[in-house]
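Hey all, sorry for the wall of text incoming. These are the two entities for the joint prediction.
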Amino acid sequence: MSDADALPMVVPDPSLPTRVRIHEVGARDGLQNEKATLPTEMKARFIHRLADAGLTTIEATSFVHPKWVPQLADAEALFPLVDDLPVALPVLVPNERGLDRALALGARRVAVFASATESFAKANLNRTVDEALAMFDPVVTRARTEGGHVRGYLSMCFGDPWEGPVPIPQVVRVCRALLAMGCDELSLGDTIGVATPGHVQALLTALNEAGVPTSALGVHFHDTYGQALANTLTALRHGVTTVDASAGGLGGCPYAKSATGNLATEDLVWMLRGLGIDTGVDLGRLVATSEWMAAHLGRPSPSRTVRALGRTTQPHKEQ
Amino acid sequence: MSDADALPMVVPDPSLPTRVRIHEVGARDGLQNEKATLPTEMKARFIHRLADAGLTTIEATSFVHPKWVPQLADAEALFPLVDDLPVALPVLVPNERGLDRALALGARRVAVFASATESFAKANLNRTVDEALAMFDPVVTRARTEGGHVRGYLSMCFGDPWEGPVPIPQVVRVCRALLAMGCDELSLGDTIGVATPGHVQALLTALNEAGVPTSALGVHFHDTYGQALANTLTALRHGVTTVDASAGGLGGCPYAKSATGNLATEDLVWMLRGLGIDTGVDLGRLVATSEWMAAHLGRPSPSRTVRALGRTTQPHKEQ
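and here's what came out:
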C-alpha cells in the first residue's frame, strides 16, 4: 500500500448525519490571515482547484475596506475570474458599502461578521455588539431583497482573549438577533480555539432551547489547542451538518505563538470519509492543492493529513 | 487575560468518565522514535519533571536489545535514577532476557509489545503473530509470579502499512490471547494513525462482545492524520479511562512524511480539563517541560497546546 492509496477504513456511526456540507474558508479567512499577499491570478487558480477537488461552497473573498485587509484588496478583480464555477461562492461584506460592491459584481451569497463579545466588537468593528448588529440589519435586509442568501458569522462564541470564557446566554442572544434580522445560517466561531466538547454541546443545546434549529447552525473551530476535530465530531453528533474548514489549515502560521489556525479541510475529510459521511471531496486533489499553496507561501501546511499524504517534501529546514 | 492564564471553560459531559488515567509514553515511545539520543541524566530529569507535573504513570524506558533501539540503550543506568519517584514506572520488555534485566533492577510494572498483523510482527519481531505470543507467554507468567503488573501493547489495531485496513476479528483474537496469558491491561495502538471514530467504536464494541471488559482497555492514538483526539473522545464515550499520550507529542518528527507522532499529552489534558475530567496534571508545568525538551531536540513541539501556551519562541526559522 503506498501513501497515495492510504485511506481510512469506512465504519459509519449511525448516530451521525449521513451528509455534511463543508464551507471552505481557505481563500477568504485563510488568505486574509496569511502574511503574504498573493497575486489575483493565483487566488483564482486556488479557488478553481478547490472546486475541482469537489468542494461545493467556497468563500471567495471579502469586500471589507482594503485598508483593513490588504490581502484581499483585489476582490473586484478576483470575483469575475471565479464566478462561472458551478459552486456556491459566498463573499464577506462588512457593511452596506461592501454589499454594494458585491452586488454590483453579481454576488448573491454574502456573509456578515458579528461578535459575541463587546471586547472583540470594539477591537474588530469599533462598535458595541448592538451597534454592529444595527449596522448589519440593512445589509441583511437588502441582500435578501436581492434574492441573496446570508450567512452570519459569530466570532468569540466560546472564549475571548480579553474577557475569557464567554457566557452561553450572551452567545444565544446575538445568535437570535442575527436570525431575527434574516440571516439564513449562522457560523459559530471558536476564534481563539479554546472550546472543548462539553462546551460545544452545551451551546448547541442552549441554542435549540432558545428556538434556534440545528439546521440553521454551522460550526467553525480553530485548532489552536488541537481541539477542532473533536469539537466538530461533537457538533456532528448533535446533528450539525455544516462545517467550516480551511484547505491545508490556511490562516494561522503554525509556528506563531497562539497560532489561530482553522481546522484543516483535509483532516476533516479524513474523519468524514472514515465515518462514511459523503462530502464529494477528492482528498488526493485537495492535498495536492494545499501542497501547491504551501510551496507558494514557503512553509509547510499545518494539516497533519497534508503532511502525511503529500507527495513532495514540505518546505522546511531541519535545525 | 494572558496566555499563561488561558484555560478552557469547564463544561462536563455526564456521559463521559469522571476520571482518566494518562499513561505517559514520551520517555519511552517518544524518545525511542526521535533521531537524537539524549544523555541519561537528561532522560532522568525529563521523567522527574513529568512526575512533578502530576503524571502518575510514566513509561520509563525499554529493555529491548540496544542494537534495535540505541536511543534507550542506557536503561540499566537510567532506571535507578528515577525509581524512587512516587509514580508507576512501567518499562518495556521484549522477551525473557529483557524481563531478567528489568526484574534485576526492581522494576515490577512491565509491558510487552505485540502486533495485530502478520506483516508488522514479521517486520518488528521477525516472528509470526502466534510465535510472538508464544514468546511473550513466559514473560507475562514470570512477571506476574514476581507480583508485577503487565500491560500488553497491541500495534496495528486499525490499519497496517503493508496490509491496509485490519479486520476487527483479527484484533479481537490477539487481544483475547494477551488477556488469556495474564496481561492486566491492553493498549490498543493505532500505529499509523488511520483510525476514525466509527472504527474505534466498532472495535471496542466487538471486544466487549468477545468478553473483553472496557476496564481492561487503554487506547493509544497517533496524530498522523490529525484524528487522535477525536478518536480518544470516542473511546472515552465508550467508557475507556486509560489513555496513552506523549508529552509534547514526542515520537514523530512533525516534518517527516507520514509523521507518526503520538497524541500530545498537553492537547489531551486541555480537552479533559474543559470536560471537567480530573487527571491531576498541571498543564503549565507540563508545557514548560515539553518546551525544555523541544529546545534540546532543536525543533518545535508538534503539540498545538505547547505552541499556544509556550512562554518561549519555538526554535524555528521562518523561510
